[in-house]
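Explain the record.
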Amino acid sequence: MLPISTHVSIPDEEIELTAVRAQGAGGQHVNKVSSAIHLRFNILGSSLPPFYKERLLALRDHRISREGTIIIKAQDSRSQERNRALALERLQELIRSVAVVRPPRRPTKPTKGSTQRRLDSKTKRARLKSLRGKPDEQ
């Protein structure tokens, strides 16, 4: 079980972990050992509460496919066990991030002083620009 909060956890059967070969340079060892981990988690087919599912599907994250599958690749460590732990931590972190309900933003008005300063600077600038023209001939 992967704990998300005190009341929510994900059964191990819902998380698909696959060992693959890591990408990039690494010498002789990297070509013969599958130490990287591909984690796949189907949001729609999971036992998560509807609140989590809706928020995850609304999230614009490159790790979430159009079909509603979270795909995480962990290849930071040379150890397969460490990469498995990293992938599970990232999944846990992603799901916990949608559980945080942020308060709605209240738009603020500019202060009277800042509005007055802005208008004064606009007037000053307009006066300066009007003096740049050719002098009137009489």
Notes: Residues 119 and 125 are 10 Å apart (CA to CA). The longest helix spans residues 80-99.
